[in-house]
Specification:
By secondary structure, the chain is α/β, with parallel strands linked by helices. 45% of the residues lie in helices and 12% in strands. Helix 1 (17-30) crosses helix 4 and helix 3 (48-56) crosses helix 4 (58-77).
C-alpha cells in the first residue's frame, strides 16, 4: 500500500543536532544567559519558538527570544559546512520511492538551510515535496509541521513519520500519524517509545536492512 512518508530532516537525514546544540549555547551566551550544554541538547528537535521559552522561561523569551533566535541562526551558519548526511539517508529516500510512496522531507528550518540539506542529499528531483519555516506557525512538538507535510502532497490516509526525537513522535501523534524513530538524535530507545514511536532503529542503515519488516512495506509488526 502506498503511503505518505514524512521524513524529518534535521538529525534524521542530516547530522545537525550537535551543531545546533553548540549554536544555541553560543547564542544564549552572547545574550548573557549561560545554560548547560546537556540541557540544550535535550531540547534539540523543538523549533526555536518552543526551545527558547522551554529553556529560558516565558519572561526571557518575551524580552530576548527574537534576538537569540537570530543569533543562533548566525552561529549555526558558521557550522553548517560541517553538516553531512547520515549514512543511508538518500538510499532510504530512493527505496521509499521505489515502494511507490510519496516522500515529503520535513523541516521548520529557514529556506537557505533547507536548500543546503536538499543539495547535500541530492534530493530535489527525488522527494515529492519538502517543508520549511514559512509552512508552519508553531513548531514541534505541535503537529503543524506534520500536517503541512501532508498538505504538500494532499496526503490524509496512510501516512508514516520517520524522526529522531521525542518531539517528532509527539508532533506526529497529535496529527494522528504513527512514527518510526532512529537513535541518531541522542534520545534513548525507551524515551522514543514512550513518546509514541511504534519501533526504533539504531540507524538509517539498520532501518534499510530491515525495511521489509517495517510499516513502510506493509508490515504492522515491530
Amino acid at each position: 500500500m502506498a503511503l505518505t512518508a514524512v521524513l524529518d530532516i534535521d538529525g534524521t537525514l542530516v547530522d545537525t543536532n550537535y551543531q545546533h546544540t553548540i549554536a544555541w549555547y553560543r547564542a544564549f551566551r552572547r545574550h548573557e544567559l549561560m545554560l548547560p550544554i546537556w540541557r540544550i541538547h535535550r531540547s534539540i528537535g523543538m523549533g526555536g519558538d518552543q526551545l527558547v521559552p522551554a529553556l529560558a522561561g516565558d519572561d526571557w523569551e518575551a524580552e530576548h527570544g527574537e534576538a537569540v533566535r537570530a543569533t543562533e541562526k548566525e552561529c549555526y551558519l558558521e557550522l553548517i559546512e560541517e553538516v553531512e548526511p547520515l549514512p543511508g539517508a538518500r538510499d532510504l529516500i530512493v527505496r521509499l520511492k521505489d515502494e511507490g510512496h510519496a516522500v515529503v522531507l520535513a523541516s521548520s528550518a529557514k529556506e537557505d538551510e533547507v536548500d543546503h540539506y536538499l543539495d547535500l542529499l541530492d534530493a530535489r528531483d527525488l522527494a515529492d515535496a519538502w517543508t520549511m519555516s514559512d509552512d508552519v506557525e508553531v513548531t514541534k512538538p505541535a503537529p503543524d509541521l506534520v500536517k503541512a507535510a501532508l498538505d504538500k502532497v494532499n496526503g490524509s490516509d496512510g501516512a508514516l513519520m520517520l524522526g529522531d526525537s521525542t518531539f517528532d513522535c509527539e508532533a506526529a501523534a497529535r496529527a494522528d500519524v504513527p512514527t518510526i524513530a532512529v537513535l541518531t538524535g541522542g534520545f534513548s530507545r525507551e524515551e522514543l517509545q514512550d513518546a509514541g514511536a511504534v519501533t526504533v532503529y539504531d540507524s538509517l542503515e539498520e532501518l534499510l536492512d530491515q525495511l521489509e519488516d517495517t510499516p513502510f512495506v506493509g508490515s504492522d509488526e515491530e
